[in-house]
Amino acid sequence: MTARRVAVIGGGAAGMLAAVFAAESGDTVTVFEKNAKIGRKLYITGKGRCNLTNNCDVRTVIANTPTNGRFLFSALSRFSPADTMAFFERNGLSLKTERGNRVFPVSDRASDVVDTLLRAAKKAGCRIMHETVDDIIIEDGCIKGLIAADKSYGFDKVIVACGGRSYPLTGSTGDGYRFAQKAGHTVTPLRASLVPLETEEPVAPEMNGLLLRNIAVTFTDSKMNDKRVYTDFGELQFMSYGVSGAVVLSASAHLRDMERGRYRLAIDLKPALSGEKLEARLLRELSARRRETLSQLMRSLLPAEMIRYFIAAAGLDGGKSCSEITKEERRGIITLLKNFTLTIKGTRPIEEAIVTSGGVSVKEIDPATMQSRLVKGLYFAGEVIDVDAYTGGFNLQCAFSTGAAAGRS
């Protein structure tokens, strides 16, 4: 049988897996990657360490994929997190599992993940061309090829795996949506997910960039009678526009139908202490440091950059003597330490998001093969599809599973 000519648009996680599996199936595969290197977005994932999957079962991945998770059942069943781990280890990358079942390379280098994908692709016989695809060629409802650098190329199959619109500097500029729409596909509204949040309350200049570790957060929805939407423990960072950090990025995926002022963030600055224990500690501090000012006392409880803002939020005078602090003021301090509240104004722009929510409608894609239901020979994989998950390696697993399904098909 004559080998089929397969083009993969995008050399990221989904595209490279698709290319490897297509080539291993006997196809002649060409990867078109606009950047000088493949996997550019992978380099910045997991703070440069690349959380490449989650060491869990298929149902857990689906449960952590709020947008069209069930669409992935077939692809995940054929290429699960265990298969992802086996693929990388088989190709020479040692892995480790950390808190929350997050999987990283033992080296803690995202570059090693990229190198492994490139090595596997070359071993399978894939050709990589660093050119920008301008258009796809469709005739009589069938894919015929593509146009890159003003040159037409004939292909029997084309896999669109060029990402979403997040982090455009990595090459994710939304080209895949344009190709999909040309083919007659529906592209659902795009929005930012896993993204920093803007707050109504202005952040004090000295707090910009301040990283808080080991804090607890609770997000509530005012339209649902202040129902808890998300809780977490970890790191939060104040920014000039609001808040970022691991717990904020994770929370953003849960804040659906964002409206200004709808969601509120409560930060527990002392989660290891109950209200009673915190009060006892504060009483001891006030008694032992009676001649100091409140601002001086707060240095034992908060980072210096936060003290002025905190005292103002509590409605207190930082120059007041500790011996003058009333019972009511003391309780106000404790309440704020356990419930430092901010109002969410909205998300940062989609260009600053880790993941794009929205994309090519799953109703128009065969979930077993990732082939278009509208155009024969056209496939989709990765972030371009209307599927997005929470943090923890789930989004990359979605990319690998859909890429493997498209490539094998």
How would you sum up this structure, described in words?
This protein has helices at residues 13-24, 58-63, 73-78, 81-90, 110-124, 175-182, 246-252, 275-288, 294-297, 304-313, 327-338, 394-408; strands at 5-9, 28-32, 53-54, 95-98, 102-105, 127-129, 133-139, 142-148, 151-154, 157-160, 191-193, 197-199, 211-221, 227-239, 242-244, 263-268, 340-347, 355-357, 378-380. It is of the alpha+beta class. It folds into two domains: 5-191 and 352-408, FAD/NAD(P)-binding domain, CATH 3.50.50.60; 196-347, no CATH class. The strands form five sheets. The chain has a six-stranded antiparallel barrel. A five-stranded parallel beta sheet has the order 6-2-1-10-19, sandwiched between helices. Strands 3-5-4 form a three-stranded antiparallel beta sheet. Strand 8 and strand 9 (151-154) form a beta hairpin. Helix 1 packs parallel to helix 5 (110-124) and helix 1 (13-24) packs parallel to helix 12. The longest helix has 15 residues, at 110-124. It is elongated, with a radius of gyration of 25 Å. 44% of the residues are buried.
Annotate the secondary structure layout.
Layout: E1 5-9, H1 13-24, E2 28-32, E3 53-54, H2 58-63, H3 73-78, H4 81-90, E4 95-98, E5 102-105, H5 110-124, E6 127-129, E7 133-139, E8 142-148, E9 151-154, E10 157-160, H6 175-182, E11 191-193, E12 197-199, E13 211-221, E14 227-239, E15 242-244, H7 246-252, E16 263-268, H8 275-288, H9 294-297, H10 304-313, H11 327-338, E17 340-347, E18 355-357, E19 378-380, H12 394-408
Helix pairs in contact: 1-5, 1-12, 8-11
